[in-house]
Design brief:
The chain is mostly helical and 72 residues long. It has one domain (3-71). The protein has 2 helices and no strands. The chain has helices at residues 3-30, 39-71.
Length: 72
Amino acid sequence: MTKKEITIRALKTFVQAFLGVLIPEVVTILNGGFTDVSTAWKAVSPFIAAALAAGISAVWNSVKGYLDNRTE
């Protein structure tokens, strides 16, 4: 697996995780929830969750690519 493929997979994971976290938060905010949490945290938390998921994806695919290349 090339670095380009790993990057593309990580970016796809970032978008999926970001939307998966952002959409429920937007619905909750629109319904009047999260009144005691700062606005900055509400804006940053989906990015943090998505970045963690993308990082895990990149590491996973890097290890998988290394192991696949080693066995060939």
